[in-house]
Amino acid sequence: MRTKFFKDGALLLAAELVSRLLAFSVSFVLARQIGLEALAVLALAQSIIAYATVAGDAGLGTEAVRRIASGERSDAVVRETARLQIFFALLASALVVPIAFAQTSSLVAIGLALGPLLVAASATYVLQGRLDAKSLAVSRVLGNTVVGAMGIVTSLMGLPLWVIASSYSVGALVTMLYVNHRAGVGPTQIFGRIPWRSLSVGRSKYLALASYTVILHGYSSCLIIMAQNFGGGSQLVDVALATRILLLLVIPAQLLGSLLLPRYSRVAISMRSLCLHIVSVLILGGFISLVVHLTAKWFVPLMFGPESVDSVRAVETISLQVPLSLASTVLIAFFLAAGRFSTLAGIYAAVLVVQIGLGFFLRNFESSEFVMALVLSEWIFVLLLLTALLLNPGAGRRRATKRRTATSPGTPPLRASSTSVR
pTM value? Predict the structure, then answer.
């Protein structure tokens, strides 16, 4: 099991690095060909449209991972999950697309609008539940190859920004087709009558999961939205570029969450092992942050052009979040495997309020100080998670034991606790 864990981790890490670089190549070319302002508009629109993606997921995808990992039939899980996700994504898109249009004063939201629906129709949770790391890796590389190729070509041709942005929707379409093919999922499973009964049976659990998921994205996207609306938008370009690079830096955290979640859900994790995991990722994150501080003056202008040199300090500051993000990923996987969704939602809501307050206070400072709103709130987030863990250290072990004894392929769909990936 441990050997497979490291093999899967290495495969997914390599695929994620390649796929992210392919997708981010659009950002590099866009910044050089059209300008950093266009990149900032795209990043802001993506942050807003992503609310439809997370609202469409509503925690259903992460519950599906746990159910499939526990042995339930994937076709039944897909029918219940995909149809509800598509419905919620449609509702959320009807709300956020006009907001993205208003915030960016451009049609870029149109090019991104199909993304949430395509993600909702993609049965990635089947591959995650089966621990099919190879197919997950191929899907990421394949989809982002399309994004990179189409985005670069349209940027070099000088086409409108909404056309360039549509490369992300086309990449999501290719990913969906491949994932569903590998998962053995057909259109009849995805489209059909919405299973309201399955949702109503576990409505309190799903409400907690949905709240957690939406609040999580609010916490993650808050900084760039504040940069647009606080201080006259003067910090938007620097913050957009810094958060763009942060998405690359936290790849290890995202992969770690994907690998730890099904394993924490299957077996009880001791406090000693959990502490060892936290210390290990703090060391790794500290090393990443140190490398960024030593090399940012070189790689930022290289990627985004000479005009981006003014954003170097913001990049250096925001990299301080990396070790915290890795540590919180381990803790979140533990809490979610224990079914403590309401606890996580409450903590995230608290630090979201803190981040907004810090952003308002720092709104007239330089961008390098403004991004400290995110770093400081992440410190508070980790401290609150550790506090909650110390107050109830045995919850994860008890819930894991309960799942091993009570869950079987014939278990009713929504009986066991849900899980999520940060």
Answer: 0.71
**Token reading at 280:** 């290990």
Between 246 and 260, residue with greater pLDDT: 246
User: Tokens 């360039």 correspond to what residue?
Assistant: 164
CA distances from 246 to 207, 243, 251, 308 (A): 30, 5, 9, 15
Instruction: Report whether 102 contacts 42 (CB < 8 A).
Output: no
| Residue 387 tokens, joined | 């506090």
Residue 180 neighbours by CB under 8 Å, 6+ apart: 121, 122, 123, 186, 190
DSSP state for residue 411 in the 8-state scheme = S
DSSP letters of 59-124?
THHHHHHHHHHTT--HHHHHHHHHHHHHHHHHHHHHHHHHHHHHHHTSTHHHHHTTHHHHHHT--H
From 350, 346, 327, 287, select the one nearest 422 (Cα to Cα). 327
Cα 366 to Cα 246: distance, rounded to the nearest angstrom: 18
- pLDDT tens-digit map of 295-318: 999 988 988 888 888 889 999 999
For 151, the token pair is 């985005």
How do residues 396-407 score in pLDDT, each as one tens digit? Answer: 444 444 444 333
Question: CB pairs under 8 A, 24+ apart, for 149-152?
Answer: 151/23, 151/25, 151/26, 151/29, 151/30, 152/25, 152/26, 152/29
HSE-up of 109 (CA within 13 Å, CB side)?
22
Interval 129-137 mean pLDDT: 79
